[in-house]
Amino acid sequence: VxxxxxxxxxxxxxxxxxxxxxxxxxxxxxxQVRTSAAAAVITKSCTPQPRxxxxxxxxCATALGSINSMxxxxxxxxxxxxxARSYPYAAGKPLFLSLSGMTLQENLDMLSDLxxxxxxxxxxxxxxxxxxxxxxxxxxxxxxxxxxLTQMAxxxxxxxxxxxxxxxxxxxxxRMAAVLNAFPALRFVTCINxxxxxxxxxxxxxxxxxxxxxxxxxxxxxxxxxxALANVREFYRLLPGxxxxxxxxxxSGREAFMHILAGATAVQIGTCLYEEGEGAFARILDELRAxxxxxxxxxxxxFRGKLKTL
Length: 310
Ligand SMILES: O=C(O)c1[nH]c(=O)[nH]c(=O)c1Cl
Prior knowledge:
The protein has helices spanning 27-34, 77-86, 104-117, 142-155, 170-180, 225-238, 253-261, 271-276, 279-295, and strands spanning 5-7, 10-12, 16-18, 41-42, 59-62, 65-68, 95-99, 122-126, 160-164, 186-191, 195-199, 201-202, 207-208, 216-220, 243-247, 266-269. By secondary structure, it is α/β, with parallel strands linked by helices. The chain has one domain (5-54, 71-194, 221-302): TIM Barrel (Alpha-Beta Barrel), CATH 3.20.20.70. Helix 4 (142-155) packs parallel to helix 5 (170-180) and helix 5 (170-180) packs across helix 6. The longest helix has 17 residues, at 279-295. The radius of gyration is 18 Å and the shape is globular. Bound molecules: the ligand O=C(O)c1[nH]c(=O)[nH]c(=O)c1Cl.
């Protein structure tokens, strides 16, 4: 069984890597991912300056997934650029840099600096970043997204991608696809970011479980799998010539198989990686390999995007 993936001029031994935000804030964590069975690495979404993020507790795992309101804690763009400068690209594991400015100008500043650095790493711009006060996150403001991407494509001419929030309405899928299809250099979308502003309640304590936002936080893990799969499949259909990276609810080879069947080129592991550690990569790969062997598939292209409808 061959798990290899080749896309964007990159060759990956397998489709798995970390989701931005998990095991990727410090160099020590990034090296844990890079030296694991993961085939690529992505950094924590960064801002130009370091941020401590929200008061704790700001992450909580449950039997069904996770909730977080981290508040963009990160070591600052220069820290991750420094890692990208010394990264061993020749070892064959691509590096992605997640950018999440608090303003459009911050994203433009980071992207133009990254362009000047001329490094082999690829930017994944986080569209769940804040928008103007009183407006929804950028990813939910289609007009603002179009304007932001127009300016980003002006300062950064290489291939890049975006991390998308989940969408829940066919008109929203179509509106966002129309925006994304206007940018040829936008080569991949990562679906999905956490499902925003969920509320987890602890019955014994009769309390919320995270401190920020009176308990509201982004949901990950099994909670989000069907939504993640829907976003992967819809954008796989709506964005011809672009790649979709699947993220959301992958706990085993089975969910990785589902995401690829829905059209994903590669897949990111978030909550499961946070809870299990880097051993999750080898385990999930073994499970995916066994599932493919059982089904008689030799390589990922044998089933990628071939989800049957009834
Ligand atoms: O609170 C966070 O740091 C965070 N948490 C998420 O679940 N998704 C994101 O894009 C970010 Cl930036």
